[in-house]
Amino acid sequence: MTASVQIVGPQFSTFVRSVQLCCEEKGIPYTLGAEVDGRPLGLHSPEHYALHPFGKLPILLHGERRLIETPSICRYLDAAFEGPPLQPEDPWARAQVDQWTGILALYVDQALVRRYLLEFVFPKGEGGAVRQEAVAAAQPEVARLLGLLEGQLAHGDYLVGEAFSIADAIAAPMLDYLLGLPAAEAFLAETPRLVAYTQRLRARPAAARVLVAPDLGGAS
Questions:
Q1: pLDDT on residue 37
Q2: What domain range includes position 148?
Q3: By C-alpha distance, which of 120, 122, 149 is closest to 132?
Q4: Would you state the pLDDT for residue 217?
Q5: Mean pLDDT, to the nearest integer, of 16-42?
Q6: 101: pLDDT strictly greater than 70
Q7: What DSSP string describes 91-107?
Q8: Backbone angles phi, psi at 23, to 5 degrees
């Protein structure tokens, strides 16, 4: 089994960045990009579906092993490699990390990334304009979920207690993009703990290497 892993996917993807953060936090060597065996992997190509039956990214390659779905990838990286643990030993605390990982990867990703942030990054309105009606429709659920995270952060510096975990690795790229969006100022004014939390995440050495300005060249 090789000592390094390959993360297949574009670096601007929030989920790709979550996997990167886990590698960086644990000191796992990795390569990154949309190539497999030296050949570009076309999005939704037969080769892509052969690796991921639902045509999603990222995909983790570790020797002959292939793994999909970001929470599963992050849990595998934590268990299979040495380095600082990203999950608590205590069963209840670990279940809490799993719970927040699931909430973020499903509900928060859909509301915050798919229905809100992507409208600004890849606007689908006439002439490439942001569809303000789509933004307005997304805002109530974004506000509700940010409020949920704000409440959880009353209990510690991180989503589950005082230690960085996989849940924080899932949250960090989403919230980093949100804090860089001028249109989100109204949300952020109502969630001071969330803003402070995101700034703590940004200050971690691993985040400084991952949460960089995205290169969207060739994206569609």
A1: 87
A2: 91-204
A3: 120
A4: 55
A5: 95
A6: yes
A7: HHHHHHHHHHHHHIIII
A8: -65, -45
